[in-house]
Design goal:
single chain, 385 residues, alpha/beta, eight-stranded mixed beta sheet, 11 helices, 14% strand, binds arginine, binds zinc ion
């Protein structure tokens, strides 16, 4: 979610009433504290020892017999995630359909890692619509890929026992891209846990990476993005300059007639957002989208006693052009959403593994609520197969 302030310059423009989260390298924390004090800016240290948390997140306790957590209640390296795809591809939801889970290669990353989409499909009904979910566009938001895998596992486990997921899968296929930014994700596991962008390099600069959620063709690189390669919100050299962006955009362009719902999963800050983020203008079906996220937020509050803000991106969070949700919306996918999952800043990107299940169940409830609403609105009379 919030791009960290790379330099101290933004401190000058802070609004008096707003809270900001700064990520400060341990060796400059005293300097920063001094500076804040000198400018009479109150502060509190949220995470004094992030290394401990990082260790907890990367510990693989699957071999520990005392551990009761399942695969889906832990964070996983890219290798483990990839290995999981192979296992998932062998699963089926009903006897008649051996191809329930298909793994589709949609392109490759800058460092040539494969971009895999999982397709869940329980029947071959004609004119079937589809829903798309992508996760992990920002490398450090680990709860996001965890959610995509959670969704797949939930679908496989509860199809035919939970009526909502059964209804959804009976009526639409689901395309899931669990790690949109594999190079960045890998880098957060090996080198820098706080990395956000992809890992593309360019002859003209020493700085690495493009913010993939500023690289789509939706008011590209206007206010809320940066054309400076060293910025955390660098928009890239041109729209879709990045292979990851291009792969997603190409796939959605070629499936735009069937995909009617688009979800992009981020963290943190607990928000259910819809277009636009690239302008303050209202989307044409603003009130319909608002109704949907409102109902989803209310359900989360009722079931999990947790508060999610909701609204259009630009009005709820900040102006952020070049985002995938706005681009998908402009492509014609009129039900387009970005979710910011847990938490609200206590742990931020370093959400402990023990919080994965609640964070994912909340997001799942929101996805189901919205998918059911869209399905009810758009249900075309079905032709018997
Ligand atoms: N935290 C997300 C980002 O900065 C917000 C995404 C909202 N949607 C958007 N198109 N910017 O990318
Ligand atoms: Zn994000």
């Amino acid at each position: 979610m919030r791009p960290p302030c790379g330099s101290l310059f933004p401190l000058i423009i802070l609004k008096k009433t707003r809270r900001f989260h700064l990520f400060v390298p341990a060796n400059s924390s005293e300097t920063v504290k001094d500076l804040l004090k000198r400018h009479a800016i109150t502060h509190e240290v949220l995470l004094a020892n992030p290394n401990e948390l990082i260790e907890m997140q990367t510990r693989n306790d699957s071999t520990d017999p005392r551990s009761s957590s399942t695969f889906y209640e832990r964070y996983h390296s890219l290798e483990d995630v990839c290995f999981k795809y192979q296992i998932l591809a062998t699963q089926r939801l009903n006897r008649d359909n051996p191809d329930t889970v298909k793994v589709i290669l949609i392109g490759s990353s800058f460092e040539k890692r494969p971009l895999y989409v999982l397709k869940l499909s329980v029947n071959n009904r004609p004119n079937k619509k589809a829903m798309w979910i992508d996760c992990g566009i920002h490398a450090r938001e680990w709860i996001s890929p965890a959610f995509c895998l959670w969704f797949v596992q939930y679908s496989l486990s509860f199809y035919q026992s939970n009526k909502d997921i059964t209804h959804i899968l009976d009526n639409m296929d689901v395309y899931i891209l669990p790690v949109l930014n594999p190079d960045g994700y890998h880098y957060t596991w090996t080198t820098n846990r706080m990395w956000r962008k992809n890992r593309s390099t360019n002859m003209s600069t020493k700085c690495v990476g493009v913010d993939l959620n500023r690289n789509f063709d939706a008011n590209w690189c206007t206010e809320g993005a940066s054309d400076h390669p060293c910025s955390e919100i660098y928009c890239g050299a041109f729209p879709e300059s990045e292979p990851e962006t291009q792969a997603v955009a190409d796939f959605l362009r070629s499936h735009k007639d069937i995909v009617q719902i688009y979800f992009s999963i981020h963290s943190y800050s607990q928000m259910l957002l819809f277009p636009y983020s690239c302008t303050l203008e209202e989307a044409e079906n603003h009130s319909e989208l608002l109704e949907m996220v409102k109902e989803a937020a209310q359900k989360i509050q009722r079931h999990y006693r947790n508060i999610y803000k909701y609204g259009s991106g630009a009005n709820t969070i900040y102006l952020a052009p070049g985002g995938s949700d706005d681009w998908a919306y402009k492509l014609g996918i009129k039900y387009s959403f970005t979710f910011e999952l847990q938490d609200r800043g206590r742990y931020g990107f370093l959400l402990p593994p023990s919080d994965i299940s609640k964070a994912c169940n909340e997001a799942l409830l929101a996805v189901k609520t919205i998918a059911l609403k869209v399905d009810a609105k758009t249900q075309a009379p079905t032709t018997p197969a």
